[in-house]
TrEMBL record:
A family per Pfam: CUB
GO CC list: plasma membrane
Entry keywords, A to Z: Disulfide bond
Record flagged with keyword RNA-binding: no
Species for this entry: Dictyocaulus viviparus (Bovine lungworm)
Name of the molecule in the record: CUB domain protein
Residue ranges of domain CUB in the record: 1-104, 121-243
InterPro entries: CUB_dom (IPR000859), Non-NMDA_GluR_Accessory (IPR053207), Sperma_CUB_dom_sf (IPR035914)
Presence of the UniProt keyword Disulfide bond in the record: yes
Coiled coil: none
């Protein structure tokens, strides 16, 4: 098949009110290698607020070529644009891409009441409205946007604590201090509240089945992403296996890329059934609650002292299996 020189095709998808655009690619094979994107490539603009937005100044959601597929992409708002570029003249029929589009409800991306006067992704999650539910990354299950900030303020009732379960958590890991993307959980309603230290100062990287508990009825989550320079490691794939054959190399990159989605799903629950920290400590000096856990405590001795360890007091028998650690 012969293509015109310097071919460019633009595909614009516009969703209705309270909808988003979803793209799913089931075939993707463009000419050239995935490390150069010089012969053919597909640009995705998934953060457009209006159809009239200038693509030259818009944030590029990703450039794809070779066999590295975009897989699933979700628009941040109601508009998504694909731009296909090709400088190839003779193209085998096996080259190209194929996918499906759909318009989906944006309800799942609204975990609570959007805060007025705050642009972007800031929500108030009130226990009086909903006792439990999920918090999805802004464009789940697609890769989340760059240079973006989300905040989630969870407010419970007196006597309640908040449980967070990280069901799906994979954000870019830039090192020990998370210089790129990070999610921080504060044990209170402001950024001056103590930080729940589960991993280090901040949470980043791939975590499996992580759980956190607040001490009281308030909790604040901050999610921040950046836009690193082109030579930064985000978006690049390091593969131990090597091959001089381009198609094999691209396949290895694609297989590695498929596990690099950069997403999160956090399940929250407000409840008064969780262990009461004050009752757990019984006012004893040298006995402290380990922040982020439901009932773990630390006992510190100053010379010869005596401490008592109490089993957690339960308000309901249906709380289920409970495991507490004393250190």
């Amino acid at each position: 098949m012969t293509l015109p020189r310097n071919l460019q095709c633009v595909y614009t998808f516009v969703a209705g009110p309270r909808q988003r655009v979803k793209l799913e690619f089931d075939h993707f094979l463009l000419a050239g290698g995935s490390d150069s994107c010089e012969i053919e490539y597909l640009d995705i603009y998934s953060e457009l607020e209006r159809v009239e937005s200038d693509l030259l100044s818009a944030s590029l959601g990703g450039r794809y070529c070779g066999t590295v597929s975009p897989h699933v992409r979700i628009s941040l708002y109601g508009v998504l644009v694909l731009v296909f570029h090709s400088r190839a003249r003779e193209i085998d029929r096996k080259f190209g891409f194929h996918g499906r589009y759909s318009f989906i409800s944006d309800a799942k991306y609204q975990p609570g009441m959007a805060l007025k006067g705050v642009h972007g992704c800031s929500f108030l999650i009130d226990a009086s409205k909903r006792k439990k539910g999920p918090i999805y990354s802004p464009t789940y299950p697609g890769t989340y946007p760059k240079n973006f900030h989300c905040s989630y303020l969870l407010l419970g009732r007196s006597g309640q604590r908040i449980h967070l379960f990280f069901r799906d958590f994979d954000i870019f890991f830039g090192g020990e201090h998370c210089p790129y993307d990070s999610l921080t959980v504060f044990d209170g309603s402001t950024t001056s509240s103590p930080i729940i230290k589960k991993i280090a100062f901040e949470v980043c990287g791939l975590q499996q089945r992580m759980e956190l508990y607040s001490v009281g009825p308030e909790l604040l989550i901050h999610f921040n992403t950046t836009d690193p320079a082109k030579k930064d490691p985000r978006g690049t794939i390091l593969v131990v296996l090597r091959s001089d054959r381009p198609l094999v190399r691209d396949w290895l990159l694609q297989e590695k890329k498929s596990y690099n989605h950069h997403i999160f799903v956090i399940e929250y629950e407000f409840s008064s059934r969780f262990v009461d920290v004050a009752q757990l400590l019984h006012g004893q000096k040298g006995v402290t609650h380990m922040r982020g856990t439901e009932c773990d405590v630390r006992v510190e001795s100053n010379r010869e002292t005596s401490h008592y360890i109490y089993s957690p007091m339960k308000h309901h028998e249906d709380h289920g299996l409970l495991r507490c650690i004393r250190k």
